Amino acid sequence: PTMSVSNNHVSTKKFRKITLDMVLASTSLTRSSKETADAYLQRVTHLHLQNKKIRVIESLDQCTNLKVLYLYDNQIELIQNIGFATILQYLYLHNNLIKEIPNLPMPSLKKLYLDDNEVQTVSGLSACVHLEELHIARQRLPTYASLHFERDSLSAISRTLQTLEISGNGISVLAPFSGLYNLRKLYCQDNKVIDLAEVEMIVSLPRLEEANFKGNPCCTQFKYRDTAIGASSDAFQILDEVAVPKHQQVAIRGLMAHRRKIGAMSRFQRAINTESGSQMEFDEQQYEGQYGNQYDDAPYEPAQHAQQQHMYDQAQQQQEEEYKGQEASEQNELDSFQQSTDNY
Fold first, then answer.
1. Which tens digit of pLDDT belongs to each residue from 256-311?
2. Where do runs of H (alpha helix) occur along 107-213?
C-alpha cells in the first residue's frame, strides 16, 4: 500500500466537492472562446479527478461523452451518480474507501480498477459485457474474510475478461474462475491457495499466457512448478514471473504421461497378482516411491489370468515404445532450443 492508502484511514483534512471549476480544470480538451461550459463538457472524453480529496461522485452528469474517468486516490465511499456514463470505457477507482459495487450500467466498459478498497463481494458487473480487465487486488478486509465473486457478474464477463488481478485477498479456491475462457493473465499473489489442483485447473485454461501464484502456500509443495507447467495449456508462457520454455513444457508433460502409465501398469500388475496368486515382479516400489500416485488413472478391472497377462505384456511393450519416442522427441526439442539460443 502506498502512503495515500494509509492516509485513507488517518486523514483529517476536509473533503472537497466536485465543482464546475474543478471539472473544467481536470481536462486538457481545448475549449473555444465562444463555447459554453455546457457544450464544452458534452465534448469532454477524459477527466482527471484523482487525488482531489473527493468523497462523493457528483456534478458530472453533463459529461455524456466521457470515456475515461480517473477518480483514484480519493476518499470515495460509494460508486454513485454515474448513470450518465453509458459509453465509459476506463474507470479508475483504486485506493478509495469503497465497500460494494452497485450495478454498473456500462456496457462499453473495458477496464475497471478497484485495487486497495474495502470490497468483499464482487457484484454489479452484469451489464459490463465487454470488460477486458478487472483489477481488484488488496482489499482491506478483516483477517478472517476473503474476496468473493457473485456468479452473475462472473458469468457476464466470462467470455471477454483477459486480465484478472486478485492478489492479496485471502482467496483459497480458484474454481469460480475456471469459466473465464478468454483469460490471458491472472495475478493471484499472496492469497491462501493450498491445493495444487486449483492451480492445475486455472493454468489449463486454453488462452492463459501468464499466471502468478507467488506467496501462496501451494508454492511450497513438492514439484509445484513442474505440476503447474505439466497441466498448462499450449498458450502458457510465464509462471510466477519466470518464463516457461516450450521444450521444458513438452518434457514435463512427457514425464507426467510416463508416470501415469507406470501407475496404471503397477495397479494392473497388482490385479493380476491378486487374481492368480502369483508374484510377478514389476518395478512398482521404485516408481510409486519416487512419484507417488497423484497422477494415477482409474484402476483396471481384473479378468482371467491368461488374458490379463497378454494385455499386460502388450501394454508394457507399447509403453516402452512410446516412451522411447517421447524421449527422442524431447531431445529434438531441446537440441532445437539450444541451437536457436546459440545462434541468437
1. 877 777 765 665 566 656 655 554 444 444 444 444 444 334 343 444 445 545 55
2. 151-157, 196-203
